[in-house]
Q: What sequence folds into this?
């Protein structure tokens, strides 16, 4: 009798749990040997991954995936080398597990230690990019966790090949390949089952579109780290250096418009609008950025689209920008407070008081003064590699890596103390 | 036209949000003046609270509430004084807000600071005890947050009176009374609405029965800190000091059997069962503890009930204990792994290797060696006062107070850096 999908996924979770418990008895060095073995294996057997990836690419072309999506999916020897190299950055970082983060002697004389310990079993739901498959496993090994992977259907063959090689690598260095649970069903059913596996999965990380993330928020019973939706604003203050503002705008909007730390709305102080508009025009024309403007912007750009509530509320993830002229920092902060997804927000100003007020009042994971929102990234922040960018306030906020995939355990040691 | 309950609760959340934003511009001292003013007000106007509490007590007696529940509900001058005094402990603790917890200079030269900031608006769903109303507000002030309170129907009049006095106190020290949103509807509707206010409420804390907590886990879209269910075990090791084990058992089971850090299951190593059973008999008889035993226990206590799967899986919260004789630490750890709610777990042993292995392998918020599980408490752990005891792994685990009701914000300051 065929087991149900739910039973199969639970079996993977239980296997990951058992393997994770065994992993807890291993040293950091033994876990790192797993990451090294994975890198070696990918370098050795890259043609297997490329062959599997070709199947995904063919299927993707047949389905009419966009060039951008096909590019995210594509793997060759060089990209596989880059994936292997990226995870090896983790080798040289300190062990996030077993750190004593608090300690005291309690009133009654017991010793109290608070130590970091692995979460247990992570669950990850993600979309097209196959490099996430390897990144997630490397971060799980670094943090001592097991992991269930539920990737997107576009990358199914690539992911399957990558997981097979990673399991082979783990086995060779005496780590249990059951640490990696690969869910090869890519229907909504498997995501929904994974979201509901409270007790089997300790934390769920959705990484992908706003739609995926909101489905998880609505349905998950497993505690979740919400990631990625970035409705990011740039406020050009009255005292801005407009050349700097233009460079930061161009970088934030056009370097990679499809990512979560790209800019989506430009708020321009009325006093500098006259100076800034010519630069906006130049950048928009050079990159084909469509302007969705308020009335003050439309007066200058008659061919622009009138901006809507929808434009302010959502990410374009494309060569398009919402533009609004504001009367001051108050109006900018209020606009951001209404529409921001709490990801990355930027002020460009030479005025120290404005910078201070903006950073204090804007409620987001990262607030920038005179720098590009594109820096919100685990690599740029020095975490080596990221599992995602949290836009929630619970547990971790902003880019997070292995050091955030742990929880704590109190250990209290006494000589028979009881509570009076 | 009467507004819907949902609209009313959203209006309270928005008021708390506005008030919280204003609070962010105030100093720690100004927030602490709020806690002091609340203490003074409760001491001055305690008869108003007692009068309201009498209504709740009458209603409770009419409803046939148990003596234990009535006792938890009851307030008199002395108890109100104790409530005021408890929150004043927070005055002398450091400000959890505005702490720089990380800082670096990034590759491109920008300065990065990671600072603690308030969560924003907390939501709390809780049951009978009116002291929680004041504790929660004091912790919210300490951590710079607004709060929505949805207490139990048994304490409605007491809570309303306490909130009215607290709002009066805040107004007198120029803090916005809108910081406290009191939901005076105690139907399931109001809880369900609160659980779904994602975007309006930043974190939800249910504090009460297992049923409440599991309803929240199933239905909440707001990120949640799960609290309180404690299916706690005591393992009496082969090398235990049996007198110490008996004292820790008696304290854990009988001092306050209705609380989450009370013991629910006793696992006894076969080698010490002969020595420990007489002590178990003595304690059970002295306190009227009903034994639910496995076959080895029943052989010694023929009048005991046979233990069921249900007994192992759930809290008794009463003078009852599940008892199992095990062959060793492995079996104890496996039993705990299967049934524990991850709250507090205890080993009594003189064997340092057994202690080490137990603390390493048992996955719980607090693991005790030779001390009572009853110490799992924010006060005992030196946090002054607790909002609850987290049994989840995300964000905080174990007793948590004001210092855990914050999140972080990265502030990145540059001179026009863009990403290449």
A:
């Amino acid at each position: 009798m065929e087991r149900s999908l739910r039973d199969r996924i639970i079996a993977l979770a239980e296997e990951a749990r058992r393997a994770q418990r065994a992993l807890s008895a291993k040293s950091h060095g033994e876990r790192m040997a797993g990451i090294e073995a994975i890198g070696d294996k990918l370098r050795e057997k890259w043609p297997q991954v490329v062959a599997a990836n070709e199947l995904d690419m063919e299927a993707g072309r047949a389905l009419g995936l966009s060039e951008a999506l096909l590019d995210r999916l594509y793997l060759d020897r060089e990209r596989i080398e880059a994936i292997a190299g990226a995870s090896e950055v983790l080798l040289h970082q300190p062990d996030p597990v077993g750190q004593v983060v608090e300690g005291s002697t309690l009133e009654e004389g017991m010793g109290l230690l608070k130590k970091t310990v692995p979460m247990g079993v992570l669950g990850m739901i993600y979309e097209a990019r196959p490099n996430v498959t390897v990144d997630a496993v490397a971060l799980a090994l670094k943090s001592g966790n097991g992991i269930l992977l539920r990737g997107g259907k576009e990358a199914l063959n690539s992911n399957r090949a990558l997981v097979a090689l990673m399991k082979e690598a783990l086995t060779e260095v005496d780590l249990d390949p059951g640490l990696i649970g690969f869910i090869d069903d890519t229907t909504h059913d498997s995501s929904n089952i994974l979201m509901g596996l409270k007790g089997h999965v300790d934390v769920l990380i959705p990484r992908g579109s706003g739609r995926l993330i909101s489905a998880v928020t609505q349905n998950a019973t497993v505690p979740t780290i919400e990631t990625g939706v970035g409705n990011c604003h740039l406020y050009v203050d009255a005292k801005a250096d407009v050349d700097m503002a233009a460079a930061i705008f161009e970088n934030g909007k056009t370097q990679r418009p499809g990512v979560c730390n790209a800019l989506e709305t430009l708020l321009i102080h009325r006093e500098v609008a006259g100076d800034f508009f010519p630069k906006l025009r130049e950048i928009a024309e050079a990159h084909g950025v469509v302007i969705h403007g308020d009335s003050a912007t439309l007066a200058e750009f008659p061919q622009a689209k009138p901006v809507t509530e929808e434009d302010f509320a959502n990410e374009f993830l494309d060569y398009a920008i919402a533009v609004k002229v504001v009367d001051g920092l108050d109006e900018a902060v209020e606009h951001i407070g209404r529409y921001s997804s709490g990801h990355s927000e930027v002020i460009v100003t030479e005025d120290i008081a404005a910078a201070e007020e903006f950073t204090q009042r804007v409620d987001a994971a990262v607030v920038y003064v005179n720098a590009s929102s594109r820096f919100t990234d685990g690599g740029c922040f020095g975490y080596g590699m990221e599992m995602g960018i949290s836009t929630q306030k619970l547990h971790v906020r902003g880019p997070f890596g292995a050091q955030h995939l742990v929880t704590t355990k109190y250990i209290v040691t006494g000589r028979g103390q009881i509570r009076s």
